[in-house]
Amino acid sequence: MLWETKTEEKFKTLISRIPVFHRRITESVVVQQAQNNALLRKSTQVEEQDVIAAFFSDVPSPFYSMMVRLLEQSGFDYKKYGYPKNQS
Description:
It contains four helices and two strands. It is mainly α.
């Protein structure tokens, strides 16, 4: 599936900042979920909202704060899409 160019650039930057021992699995899981999210929106390309939703749905809670920090450092505006959702 195609990716919106800026989203793909930001995603690659984020992945490069993940500790090496988590990088491959994170990339694989998030790519698959982001593509599923795009399909659910009936889109032909992955966009920022798809990647953000994938991270917030699939990252284990011990890595949550690191994920938020990496999203911010990589230029993802997760708040624009209503994240983080209420975790109660």
